[in-house]
Amino acid sequence: MKAEPKVKNLAKCESCARKTIFAGILANIFLAAFKLFVGFMGRSRALIGSGLCNLSDVISSIVVIIGVKYSKKPADGRYPYGYGKVEFICQVVMSVIMILGTAALILSSFIVIAKRIFVVQHVVVFFVAILSAVISAFIYKFSHCGGEELNSPSLKAHAEHNKIDVISSLLVAIGVVVTHMGLHWVDPVIAIFECAHVLHASVGILQNGLRGMVDRNLPEDYLNKIKTLVQTVKGVSAVKHVRARQTGRQIVLDIAMQMDPDITVMEAKRINQSVRAFLRSEDKHIGHISIVDVPV
User: What CATH number should be reported for the domain whose range is 10-213?
Assistant: First the structure.
């Protein structure tokens, strides 16, 4: 029953995540300022929209720093399950910031189309968009890695935010090429499409944050996996139910299982300890485990 080690150096992951966030802040400040300047000078509404996305990334990065810092605080008498849900609050804050910013740009882009104020962007817009896509892709790669390894909701949301920026920047580059071919209306249309994509992703992040805040049960396949693992532990007769919720980075389990009614209290305690140790060896993100022995 001994599991093979499959845990990376978490201290190294924490360090990498912090460096990625701070590098992301600096990169997004540069990209936001550069895109907004070139967007206004090059008359690209799509690039302005992409710049606003980078600006919201700066805010989301700051929110992630706050979330990661407070979610790591140990449990105390007031919060016996810890401060992990701060990360879900950060997800909600990030998504609301993104929704408000993109809604304003969608409205202005519709006005441009209605008034038929079409322009041809400067070619420098194309190169700025490609540079932005490359930088955002690197930030996404390391944010996604940190989010998965640390099981951090706010880092995962931050990674998704940067993935949106990659797509957004590539769309801007495509828009520049198309408008130079004579289709001048494409730029505001791409801006609207960008914003619609951001809104869709933002709503998904918002839903995930809200689900985490209200202790929604984890997916059925995960519960079945835990149930199967518990049943393999020697001394467990049956598993009646498993409930699982995520409190920040950690997963909290409630397990109701049956054991032989003739065993001693000490034997029952040993089986419970075996279940906890085995589950934590299989999933490094499992924290508190509550086990109830139900009558056969």
Answer: 1.20.1510.10
For 105, the token pair is 């740009």
Over residues 105-156, the pLDDT tens digits come to 666 666 656 665 555 556 777 887 788 888 888 888 887 887 777 777 777 7
The amino acid present at 183, given as its one-letter code, is L
Report d(CA 78, CA 233) in Å as an integer: 34
Residue 275, pLDDT score: 92
Q: For 182-201, what is the mean pLDDT? A: 69
Residue 241, beta-bridge partner list? 256
**How far apart are the C-alpha atoms of 23 and 29, rounded to whole Å?**
10
What is the Cα–Cα distance from 235 to 30, expressed in whole angstroms?
60
The 10s digit of each residue's pLDDT in 253-264 is 999 998 888 888
Secondary structure (3-state) at 237: strand
Distances (CA, A) of 71 to 10, 12, 65, 143: 15, 18, 10, 17
Q: Are 177 and 225 a contacting pair, CB within 8 Å?
A: no
Show Cβ contacts of residue 88 under 8 Å, excluding neighbours closer than 6 positions: 153, 208, 209, 210, 212, 213, 248
* Average pLDDT for 178-191: 69
What residue type is 151 in one-letter code? N
CATH 3.30.70.1350 boundaries in the chain: 220-293
Per-residue model confidence as pLDDT tens digits over 42-66 = 666 666 766 776 777 777 777 777 7
CA-closest candidate to residue 47, choices 134, 132, 161: 132
Q: Match 């600006």 to its residue by tokens.
A: 55
Q: Which fold has domain 220-293?
A: Alpha-Beta Plaits (3.30.70)
| Helix or strand run (H / E) with residue 247 | strand 236-247
Q: CATH 1.20.1510.10 occupies which residues in the chain?
A: 10-213
Q: What phi and psi, each to the nearest 5 degrees, are found at residue 126?
A: -60, -50
What is the layout of strands, in order, in the sheet containing 236-247?
236-247, 250-259, 286-293
Task: Check residue 276 and give its pLDDT.
Answer: 92
